[in-house]
UniProtKB/TrEMBL annotation:
Pfam family name, one: CN_hydrolase
Protein name: omega-amidase
Keyword S-adenosyl-L-methionine: no
The EC number(s) this enzyme carries: 3.5.1.3
Domain called CN hydrolase: residue spans: 1-246
Cellular component GO terms, alphabetical: mitochondrion
Family named by the database record: Belongs to the carbon-nitrogen hydrolase superfamily. NIT1/NIT2 family.
Top enzyme class: hydrolase
A molecular-function term among this protein's GO annotations: omega-amidase activity
Amino acid sequence: FRLALIQLHVSAVKSDNLQRACGLVREASAEGAKLVALPECFNSPYGTQYFKEYAEKIPGESTQKLSEVAKECSIYLIGGRSIPEEDGGKLYNTCTVFGPDGALLAKHRKVHLFDINVPGKIQFKESETLSPGNSFSMFDTPYCKVGLGICYDMRFAEMAQIYSQKGCQLLIYPGAFNMTTGPAHWELLQRGRAVDNQLYVATVSPARDEKASYVAWGHSTVVNPWGEVIAKAGAEETVVYTDIDLKTLAEIRQQIPILSQKRCDLYGVEMKK
């Protein structure tokens, strides 16, 4: 099946971002994509100073637009971190998934908050405004089962292992790595998660905006279960297409059967809730 990653240029005007995102979703559908993903923070600038201003409840304006375009195009639509979600007085970094009938299939709240300090390069603390999610998020399609993470979640190998154990064959991480962590770890982490778990990994970033207060690395990518990069964007706004071949996945798992050779009598990773 065909997967499309929309590397969107994000402005400070929510309505413009929504309109352009929906237009590119329609374009991807016309090109045969059955599963389409938007980047982290696609409807607002990325930064702790913006989260409260742009926050919405779910359902709300942004998610309603995503539901409508998913139904119109009869596709599975992953809404990136569609919005900073407001719920019960707290804010969450939330990704929504809609099915071909427009129904909400999954809602992933970012589990690991991006609190880092690389001296002289970047300091960022999502926990100043956001609360963490407390659950894994998976959804079924006629093609395969998909697991979701958001950006920093990708650094935690245990999360990907749980998804693999639960039968996921594709992991999708809407993310916005920056100009420090992007060149260092963006592709490396994707290839690691793919090889460790013998599945496809896709990441979808906003396009790079050098004038933004937080500059995203871009380079939305798809990696196959052999650890090969099979599709990759540059820094500009674009749509990345790739065909996900589950026959290849099955062949790789048969050739090097690590999933059945794990020593569960010696070690294990488990989902607690």
